[in-house]
Amino acid sequence: MTQILARLRRDLDCSVDPVNRAELSAQIAAYLARVGKFEEARQLVNTIRQHFGQGQSGRVTVWLMLAEGLIQHYEGLNPTALERIRGAQVLGLAMGYSTIVALASAWKAHIEFERSDFKEMFTSLHLATKNVGAEEHDAQARLAMVLSNAFLIAGNREQGHLWFKHGHRHAVENGDQASIDALLYNRAAFLLARLRTLNCKETVSLSDIASVRMEVASATNLQALLRVTALQDHVRLLDARLQLLETKFESAIAALQAVRGAGPFAPHNFDQKFIELEICYGQMMLGETDAAVAHLPTNKVSEFSSLDIDERVVAAWMMRTMAEVDSRIGDYADFSVEFENLWSAYSDMCESLSTELARFGYKSDRQH
Which of 61, 137, 183, 363 is the most buried (most CB within 10 A)? Predict the structure, then answer.
């Protein structure tokens, strides 16, 4: 049992106040959701609702809404998760309950970042920083994670690492192994996302690939050690895509085939056709041109318009690369135009995000 879970359950055993017990139970449910124990989390939520389902306590209600939002997010990346978390934030503001405002705002920013909704993300981050206490480790760790991820995507690895350390320190002090796992996973995921995109313009160095391989291995090992099952297929997908960068095409294809139909994955960064396109690209790089042409799921970059901009850049690059090898894939010149347009949009996004991060100006306790 992790330290934070042991502490919450110990506090629950010692409490005789019904409201306090319900708050603690909701916090336990939220943690269980983050490590993939969804059935246990739902049972706790249902028990709380039997006694506090009519809004008898505002504090219980906000913790319950946050727990329900995290169950929805981690079990199925359900879009309604954001609404439940926003509800906790709004009710917390009405109550003047700064602890829940900070934590709900940090979680809201986390989901908004994943959706590339940076305008709303910064609004949520501002609200989180206005309300978070220095020793509120949950909110501090989540806030730091969002900022670390944003800096990594923008290409500022130094600031990303500073915020990673900030979040890691708060997670350790809180005994929160789930946040430590999430920090490691997110750093691996966003470093790889950046590397995959940069590789479309200029072949990335072996040392950079090796560095990200270490990050993915760390995330994989810790997830196995902690028996975290929430979103575990995301790590498998990271590994498969990293193998493509490593030019280990045979094993990459096998890994991509294994992750078919897995998940859940969010629609803004996953498309089954994209997996098939990656498999097709691997086959083409192995010289299996006929198989690649036969396997091609689409020759239209526009079919990936719902994905994040970096994913669309990679899709256009793969199609252009394959078309250069075999014209049956499509017109190389057309793919080149699409790729350059998407690359320009991606560069603009990174520049805009960097500007907003600099303007945000919030510093960790190690940067004051």
Answer: 183
Whether residue 204 contacts residue 223, with contact meaning beta carbons closer than 8 Å, is answered with no
- Any domain includes 288: yes
DSSP per-residue string spanning 263-291? ----TTT--HHHHHHHHHHHHHHTT-HHH
259 contact partners, CB below 8 Å, separation of at least 6: 233, 236, 237, 240, 275
Token representation of residue 286: 């192995």
Least confident interval from 53-57, 104-108, 119-123, 330-334:
53-57
Give the C-alpha separation, 4 to 171, whole Å: 10
Domain range for 280: 266-362
Q: Pick the last residue of a domain from 72, 99, 133.
A: 133
Place of tokens 């098939």: 276
Q: 39: exposed, middle or buried (C-beta count within 10 Å: 0-12, 13-18, 19+)?
A: exposed
CATH assignment of the domain containing 114:
1.25.40.10
Q: What are the residue ranges of helices labelled H in 118-227?
A: 118-131, 137-154, 157-173, 177-198, 206-226
Amino acid at 330: G
Q: Is the residue at 325 inside a domain? A: yes
- Rg of the chain (C-alpha set): 22
What does the pLDDT read at residue 215?
A: 87
Mean pLDDT confidence for 240-250 = 95
Give residue-wise pLDDT tens across range 344-355. 999 999 999 999
The structural domain count of the chain equals: 2
Q: How confident is the model at residue 368 (pLDDT cuts 50, 70, 90)?
A: very low
